[in-house]
Amino acid sequence: MNNDAPIGVFDSGIGGLTVAREIMRQIPNERIVYFGDTIRLPYGSKSKDNIIMCSRQIISFLQSQGVKAVVIACNTASALALEEMKQEFDMPIIGVVQPGAKMAAETTINGKIGLIATDSTIKSGVYERYIKGYRPDVTVYGKACPLLVPLVEEGMIHDTVTYEMVNRYLADLKDEKVDTLIMGCTHYPLLRSTFRQVMGEEVNLVNPAYETALELKNLLEQENLANIKEVDEPSIMYRFYVSDAAEKFKKLAQTILEFDVGMIKKINVDEL
Fold first, then answer.
1. Rounded to whole angstroms, how far apart are CA atoms 244 and 266?
2. pLDDT category of residue 270 using cuts at 50, 70 and 90
3. Sheet of 93-94: strands edge to edge?
4. Over the stretch 1-12, which tens digit does the pLDDT of each residue have?
5. What would the pLDDT profile of 108-117 be if each residue is shown by its tens digit?
6. Among 108, 103, 86, which residue's Cα sits nearest to residue 95?
7. What is the Cα–Cα distance from 95 to 155, expressed in whole angstroms?
8. Catalytic positions, written as ranges
9. Which domains, from first to last, does the chain contain?
10. Among 60, 72, 173, 218, which is disulfide-ready with 114 (CB 3.0 to 4.6 Å)?
């Protein structure tokens, strides 16, 4: 595998762009092929078998694009499909759950960690298992927030409706006096300012996207896969694919990434 081959990154929609953005910041020499499965959004309410099928199809597509490693930039898919994908594909594949869990375990002082995520991620128990592997003494308070992903995908990041929903979802976690809050969905860092406003300055917000980018950097160095070539323009470095609504994705992507993402190509998932 060539060192200048791209990294494959995928999510159900735009949320995984928070992971891609951190990869761009932490390891700017790396090329990226991003896939947003917008036609099957959201993943959080789907069965494990469905999530595994979607992940398999997308990783096969990314493999056809010559990627050297894959980041499952979706907490739900990381929780439900990561281990199966590692067994099926002969390339480095990492998810976003373990890096965030590790940071939360290292950060908490009072041993009370809040976790906001999709219903599937909460029910899987994967965050709690990882966290207790690092710190058996902590208590994890999980809260499913099913309406936040659709609100973010609609671009309602600073809307009063979104603030009200966040306030409702986080009320129980505030009552439990958690000192650490894991943003356990890659869409959620886009609502970071709202979480901060609701939870207060004293609560540490854990962004698994940042931790995942650092883990990827270490992995590429260990496997001798890091790209040492010079950085090109974004139009050359980054390619974007979606399964639906390319123009809508492009508009939101340019807000998140703060550069012209260029052409976004629509892929028919039935052909993957």
1. 6
2. confident
3. 93-94, 69-72, 7-11, 32-36, 238-242, 264-266
4. 789 999 999 999
5. 999 999 999 9
6. 86
7. 25
8. 74, 185
9. 7-95+210-271 (3.40.50.1860), 97-208 (3.40.50.1860)
10. 173
